[in-house]
Predict the 3D structure of the following.
Amino acid sequence: MKGFLITFEGIDGSGKTTQAELLYKYLINQGYIVQLLREPGGTLIGERIRSILLDSSLTEMKPYTELFLYLAARVQICFQHISPALDRGEIVVMDRFFDSSTAYQGFARGLGSETVEYLNSIATGGIIPDVTFFIDCDPEIALARISAYPDRLESEGITFMSRVRDGFLKLCALHSTRFIRINGELSIPDMQALIVNEVLERFSIKL
Ligand code: ADP
Ligand code: TYD
């Protein structure tokens, strides 16, 4: 793979989408070829799976059903978009990727991080991000930022999001060269400056 894969992770409302979009625009303005993708979604099949996953009326969904739906959407986006773009030498910016499954389903739902990491490796065909930004935000602050109409996962509330956050912190410690923790309570421009600096530094190492 000749390209460069950048992922954004964190609990709901931490500021990932904002930062992924800002980085995408910055890199496009610098003349790079960049794809901005999100999970779950990013393909026709993935967007349909997304609508099932986020439907807050589907309260009967079992943790393994949830996990396998995220994995199914992941297979599609990896093989339809991520691998081909990386093979063409492009930059791919992802608003969530497989670490979300490890944090949400592996740690917070209790399915086990090793099981989820193993299934992730099958779903992705072995793709691993060059850098992962974990936007770390207090769950109370993050949940206060998001909509008055919470989706199925957002409805789980503060205790669940705290478990997800702890999961991401464990992943940061476990994969300390790939993960960069960014304080999600900084201003939007301050966060962006840190992220751009880190990306440019990593480019100079890889390219
Ligand atoms: P996520 O993708 O992690 O759910 P978003 O980027 O969609 O988060 O941000 C959620 C909300 O919080 C949006 O209304 C956004 O404008 C706001 N927001 C994002 N970053 C910050 C920040 N650093 N400080 C305050 N509000 C923010
Ligand atoms: P989304 O609106 O994209 O995220 P956010 O609210 O952070 O902007 O919603 C996706 C939801 O799916 C979010 O609650 C996190 C969850 N999720 C998982 O539980 N596992 C996964 O593997 C992925 C990719 C997302």
